[in-house]
Design brief:
Length: 431
């Protein structure tokens, strides 16, 4: 009997590398902030706006990327995205004005945006219904492991070759990974020449989508679906909070906790190690609960709600902590707890969207990156106006609201099925 291969998991590992490269490309500008600000004569507000421009471009590309991913598949869209954003990574130190730099960051965001809608389409075709959570963990984890090791790699390049070289070297690596993904990946397992017969049969038997051609996502009906909007709002808040850590955590540790640059870098990496662990384990926990007969609301939504509640508690403790070490501990646990709603959201995007997972995940991630666009601006203003601790504590309010909103997501019912059923009922009423 032929042994079942694990090609799908090797391709998932390649997606892990892609996520790692994506984070490093995106965050290089933060690591080399001081020499860049001196080069372009930027103040902190102008530099912070560059982060928001990236997120704006990223958000703008999500829905088109989801539609394109469904039509052309993950092989094309992910390779195209990698090469696009890597080219704009290398253009970053080449431009010589702030206006051009802002344009490059916006186009950079547009280019990186298609990565995760393509990721969701890949998940929908390559993994069984019982593996969606674990697959989401594997496909997402690279982006959350990036903050753990990425800054050290970028600093090493910076110190050896100069800040401009960091953009050029990481950009070249991204282009190479894009070529590798196109050479090794396929849109569907039935198209891959190296997959074993047993693995293909396993995937096809337990897959939620068919191999037949499908129509475009029913956007008109989905936009009338309240759950579709609720799902987007839950991810908006989640990524809004995650981005606060990405953009402002080192500054908070230096200004509010008076840590040196070196110590703040180490302390800022601990929360990212925590969220990497929860992203990696959250999918497996969710799948295990599902395989034990729990509903998707319990297995996915319950885990997300639990993470949000832990965040609210630990963020309160972090803002009230009197010692720096305790503050870092609670901040580590609070960001780590958000790994559960992050990874379950991507699994639920597959549950809700099924063959339209690209469109649903694009919608979800569009809202997430609108949150990422607003986050640096609002948090910076709050910190300046009411102080750092109050600015952190106020985030508990939207998190509690988000935990309640999760009850309205109802991941056990696919969005397009509900839309079709509602449409059919309306047709029958008029018949």
């Amino acid at each position: 009997m032929e042994k079942r291969s694990n090609l799908r998991w090797w391709l998932a590992f390649l997606f892990f590398i892609i996520g790692l490269v994506a984070y490093m490309d995106r965050s290089t500008i933060a690591v080399v902030a001081i020499p860049m600000m001196e080069e372009f004569h930027m103040d902190k507000i102008e530099f912070g706006f560059l982060n928001s421009l990236f997120s704006l471009g990223y958000a703008a590309s999500q829905i088109p990327a989801g539609i394109i991913s469904e039509k052309y598949g993950a092989r094309f869209i992910v390779s195209f995205a990698l090469i696009w954003w890597s080219v704009f990574t290398m253009l970053t130190p080449a431009v010589k004005s702030y206006g051009l730099l802002g344009t490059v960051r916006f186009l950079f965001g547009i280019g990186e945006g298609p990565m995760y809608p393509g990721n969701a389409v890949f998940n929908s075709y390559w993994f069984s219904k019982k593996e969606k959570g674990r697959a989401s963990s594997a496909l997402l984890a690279g982006s959350y492991f990036g903050p753990v090791i990425g800054p050290a790699i970028t600093v090493a390049i910076f110190q050896a070759f100069g800040w401009e070289a960091a953009f050029y070297i990481i950009g070249i690596v991204g282009i190479l990974i894009g070529v590798i993904w196109y050479a090794l990946g396929r849109n569907k397992p039935e198209d891959h020449p190296r997959i074993s017969k047993n693995e293909l049969e396993f995937i096809m038997k337990e897959r939620a989508v068919s191999k037949e051609a499908k129509k475009a996502a029913p956007w008109g009906k989905l936009l009338k679906n309240v759950r579709f909007w609720i799902f987007g709002l839950t991810y908006f808040v989640t990524i809004y909070i995650v981005t606060i850590y990405l953009v402002w955590l080192p500054t908070y540790l230096q200004e509010a906790r008076h840590l040196t640059l070196a110590k703040s870098g180490l302390s800022a990496s601990l929360p990212w190690l925590a969220i990497f662990i929860t992203v990696m384990t959250g999918g497996a926990i969710s799948d295990k609960l599902l395989n034990k007969g729990k509903s998707k609301m319990a297995a996915r939504g319950g885990l997300a709600i639990g993470g949000l509640i832990v965040f609210a508690i630990t963020m309160f403790l972090a803002s009230r902590a009197t010692s720096t070490s305790m503050s870092v501990l609670w901040l580590t646990l609070s960001l780590g707890s958000l790994g559960f709603p992050v990874v379950t959201s991507w699994a639920v995007a597959n549950d809700l969207g099924q063959q339209f997972a690209g469109s649903v995940s694009g919608w979800m991630n569009m809202w997430g990156n609108i949150g990422a666009f607003l986050s640096p601006l609002i948090c910076g203003w709050l910190a300046q106006t009411i102080g750092w601790n109050a600015a952190l504590m106020i985030n508990i309010i939207p998190i509690v609201i988000t935990a309640l909103l999760w009850f309205g997501v109802r991941p056990d019912i696919a969005l397009f099925q509900e839309s079709e059923e509602s449409f059919t009922e309306t047709e029958n009423m008029h018949a």
